[in-house]
Structures are given as C-alpha cells and as structure tokens.
Amino acid sequence: MPAIVVLGTQWGDEGKGKIVDYLAQKAETVVRYQGGSNAGHTVAVDGVEYKLRLMPSGILYKGTLCVVGNGVVFNPKVMLEEMDGMIAKGVDVSGVRISNRAHVVMPYHCIMDGLGEEAKGDGKIGTTKNGIGPCYMDKCDRIGIRVCDLIDKEEFAKKLKINLAVKNDQLVKLYGHEPLSYEEILKEYEGYADRLRPYVCDTIALLHDEIKAGRKILFEGAQATMLDIDYGTYPYVTASHPVSGGVGVGAGVAPRSIDKVVGVVKAYSTRVGEGPFPTEQLNEIGDKIRDCGHEFGTVTGRPRRTGWIDACILRYAGMINGLDYMAITRLDILDSFEEIKMCVGYKYKGELLNEVPASLNILAEVEPVYETFEGWMTDISGIREYGKLPEKARIYLERLAEVTGVALGIVSVGPNRDQTIVLADDLF
Ligand code: GDP
Ligand code: IMO
Ligand code: MG
Q1: Domains of the chain: residue spans and CATH
Q2: Annotated active-site positions, please?
C-alpha cells in the first residue's frame, strides 16, 4: 500500500513543503486533507521559491495529480491567484483536482475572523485571519456552502442569500460593521466558479481508484500536531485535524490505506501566534535563532517565536500520529551555535511529568529539563551523506531519536531538493 502521510509535529512551519516536494518525486498524487490558505508551504527548486497555500506541494512535477480534499476549507480567490502565479512561472496546473465536498471560504468568514480576534482582546488566538475558524464553524453548524454548491449557479445564489442574511445581521448588530453586498459577492464567486469548474470532481472516488490501481499517494499535512483542535494547545490552535487521523475524514480514505507516517521536525522550535511554548527563548538565543533562520511567517510576515527543540511534544506527536520516521529540517540553521539544548522532560512543582499536560496553566508553568549538546560549528549545507555529518550533529540527532522513540528518516540541511539526506530506504 503505497500511501504516505507527511505532517507537522510542532507548531507549523517545520518545512513540510520542502519534504513533501522531495518525496513527491516518487508520488503520482499529492493530497491536502485539512486546513486552508492559513498554510504557507515553501518549496525551492533551482533557485526559484514557490509559496503554496492551498496548492499541494507536488505541483512542481509535471503529471502529478494535486488534490484538494473534502476536509480543506477552500478559498477560491486564493487558489486562483496561486494557479495564475504558477502558470506565470511556467508550471503546468492541469493536475489540480478540487473536492466537490470541500467547504468554501466566503468573504464574511475572513472579516469575522478578524473581528472575532479583535473582540477577544487579550484572549486572542493570533489567527492568520484567513477565515479558517469561521468557515469550519459554518460547516459544523450545517449552513456551509460547499464546492458542489459553488459550481451550481442556482444553488449558490440560493445558499448565499440565506447565509448572507444571517451574516449581515451579525456583522451589523454584533460588530457595527457595514453589511456586505449580495450582488457583489454573487458576481465575484460566479466568476471563480466559471474558472474552477473544470478542476472540480469527486476526489473520494478518484483517490479510491488511485489506491486500487496501486499508485503512490502522498497526504500533505498543513499546520501541525500542536495546532490540532483536539491535540494542540487548545484554544491556541487551528480549527482542523492536521494529525494523521485527519487523513481519513479529510480525504475519504480508510485508515488501513495508509502505509507510513513521516513527522516533519524542525531542529529547533518556532511558533506564530499566541499560546504556551515551554522551550521559548525570550533572549539573545531566541533572537539568534530568528536571525539565522529568517523566522518570519510566510502568510502574515509576523516574526516567529523561537526556542530549543522539545522532545516531549515530539514524543507526544509520535504517539498521536503513529510516526514511523522523523524528517529533521533546518539542521543547518544551528551551524553557528556553540551550545544546543534539547528539552527531554517537563517538571511541574518539582515533579517530572509523564504526559504533555492538557491544562494550559500547567503547560505555561512547566520547567523544561534540558540536555546540553556541543555545537558542531561548521557549515553542513553541502553534506549529502549521513555519515559525513559532524559527529556532534549525529550525537544530537541520535539522542533525539532515542528520547522520542521515532527513527530518523530524513535530515534536511538546506531548502533545496538536493540538500536532503535520506536514511530510510523504505520511506516510499
Ligand atoms: P511549512 O509550512 O512546514 O512548509 O514550512 P515553511 O515553508 O513555512 O517554512 C520552512 C522554511 O524553511 C521555508 O523557507 C523552506 O524553504 C525552508 N527550509 C526547509 N528545509 C530547510 C532546511 O533544511 N534548511 C534551511 N536552511 N531551510 C529549509
Ligand atoms: P503551515 O502549514 C504556523 C497558527 C496561527 C494561529 C493559529 C490559528 O505553514 O505550517 P488559523 O488562521 O489557523 O485560525 O490560526 O494557528 N497557524 C499556523 N502557524 N504555520 C501554519 O501553517 C499555521 N496555520 C495556522 O498563527 O496561532
Ligand atoms: Mg508554513
């Protein structure tokens, strides 16, 4: 069964785009199963950088099917902008397939995301304001508009009328916002529908045919385990299921179709937005990580919060996702650090904890137990074999595998495709 899941283990931006693009060399199909345009996946090929938000990171290989699954909240404007950007760079987008069951992000979702954040004041989540939460809320409220509605002119007009009456009421009465124009949205979205119609299909049937034919499928997670609505640092999370369990519901495939799960792990930690972050370094170490790693958000441009790697959350991610391998990224960013730390346990009120605590008050107060490693202090970006990495780098990586109980599958030493060291021969 040649299906593999590649997902984030930390708080996002681990380098999933790079790893998916690398592994997609061998894939016939790449599938997004959750999230939406809140994702920002960067793929670098031959010195050209591609920033992907809704587009699966397999698009740079001609002939690869790129599926936006039913679990995605789909912003047609962003998708068309991405497709146009790709076409302008000479990329073939004919392999795009969009699920007719995916929910459509509407202008009021994005506006309400922003207004909702403002209303929360100090309790804000720090969302990307892409309308993700509000769109999933409408889905659960059973008033959402799906892609099959978007491409059906009459149905869309009807559903928009009903929805907009409710949303305008809320916008005006709750937030004192201007009501939105039915005619303008209708016209705008009819235009999107006309352009997107050829790409829409029943992706569930498509994926089942692919699986039956033994084709290689790669499921691309967006966001990450610690941003999962159930497993992350709730409420400072996104509104979907980035974990491997999300693939079944978000793409319509049975769990037994999945062969391997690869967790992408940044060699240190970052987080954008609010919420607890036990290993955060609010000091010159954190500043150095941000500077060396150019840690600024792809979607919002916000400076990312930075800190040491946290093996406690990686062990947790290993359990939840059933990780077979870790793909370590950005190891090269640590090249100039004399000393590197790894959090191997949490202490709370003097006691070692066995689990990642559910209570944010406890998580915010845990004291990380660190192991300290000597830095390798040399440029590793040109190394292509594991055995040629400095011994000090291997000690760090091997200790991480030991503490997390997850094997090393890939080590990435730069953003480009060739800056990838593969340790596992049965990855895909
Ligand atoms: P994603 O959201 O998980 O796909 O990650 P982002 O694309 O938001 O952020 C990861 C950044 O790291 C991107 O700019 C990548 O091009 C870059 N990147 C990925 N792997 C490596 C690596 O091993 N070394 C370096 N220096 N950059 C990397
Ligand atoms: P990729 O796929 C990092 C964060 C936001 C915020 C929280 C909720 O590039 O790793 P949302 O807009 O989803 O309601 O915001 O989740 N967040 C991300 N952080 N990488 C991402 O995606 C993220 N997508 C959402 O910053 O804290
Ligand atoms: Mg990102």
Answers
A1: 3-99+200-260 (3.40.440.10), 103-196 (1.10.300.10), 264-422 (3.90.170.10)
A2: 13, 41
